[in-house]
C-alpha cells in the first residue's frame, strides 16, 4: 500500500465522520428536541470541536506535502462554515 493511498483513505475517513456528525447535528436540532437550547449548544460545541481536532490531526498527518496541507485547511474551513450556517438557520426557525 503506497503512502499517498493511506493519506487519501485517512482523509476520506475524517470527511465521512464529519459528514455523519453534521447529519446527526441537524437531525437532533430539527427532529429530536428543537426547544432544548442547552442541549443544542452542547451538541454544536462538541461537533465543532470534533471538526477542528480532526482538521488539526489531518494537518499534522500531512506536514510533508504542502498541497495536501492547504487542501486540509480549505476542507476544515468549509465544513466549519457549513456547521455554523446550519446552526444559525436552525436557530432562526
UniProtKB/TrEMBL annotation:
Residue stretches spanning the membrane: 7-30, 42-60, 72-90
Keywords tagged on the record: Membrane, Transmembrane, Transmembrane helix
Name of the featured protein: Uncharacterized protein
Organism of this sequence: uncultured bacterium
Amino acid at each position: 500500500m503506497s503512502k499517498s493511498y493511506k493519506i487519501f483513505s485517512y482523509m476520506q475517513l475524517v470527511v465521512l465522520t464529519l459528514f455523519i456528525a453534521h447529519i446527526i447535528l441537524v437531525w437532533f436540532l430539527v427532529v429530536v428536541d428543537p426547544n432544548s437550547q442547552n442541549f443544542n449548544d452542547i451538541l454544536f460545541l462538541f461537533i465543532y470541536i470534533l471538526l477542528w481536532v480532526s482538521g488539526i490531526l489531518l494537518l499534522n498527518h500531512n506536514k510533508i506535502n504542502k498541497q495536501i496541507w492547504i487542501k486540509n485547511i480549505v476542507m476544515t474551513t468549509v465544513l466549519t462554515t457549513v456547521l455554523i450556517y446550519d446552526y444559525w438557520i436552525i436557530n432562526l426557525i
